[in-house]
Specification:
The chain is an alpha+beta fold and 89 residues long. It is 30% helix and 13% strand.
């Protein structure tokens, strides 16, 4: 979607309601403005929910722990690299 907007006094621009609704931008939300290759890019700031990330990491750990054995200190104490290559001729 491309729209033509006008820059007002003090450099203000108004983001049309249809665009705000489409992107879920509400009054008080923060936006990130960046300049790339001569273009202005304006995007909503991503909100990070730390507890949601921790929950997903715990779920991932539970999923992989069933088939991935955790190494413990000393597991390889009686092993050597040479033993790994004894059968190779």
């Amino acid at each position: 979607m491309t729209l033509r907007i006008e820059v007002g006094k003090k450099g203000y621009i108004i983001i049309p309601k249809d665009i705000r609704d489409l992107l879920g931008i509400k009054e008080g939300d923060r936006l990130i403005l960046s300049v790339y290759d001569g273009k202005i890019i304006l995007e909503p700031e991503r909100k990070i929910n730390v507890s949601e990330i921790l929950k997903r990491l715990e779920e991932h750990h539970a999923r992989i722990s069933s088939y991935a054995k955790s190494a413990k200190l000393g597991d390889l104490a009686n092993s050597s690299l040479e033993e790994e290559f004894d059968d190779i001729s």
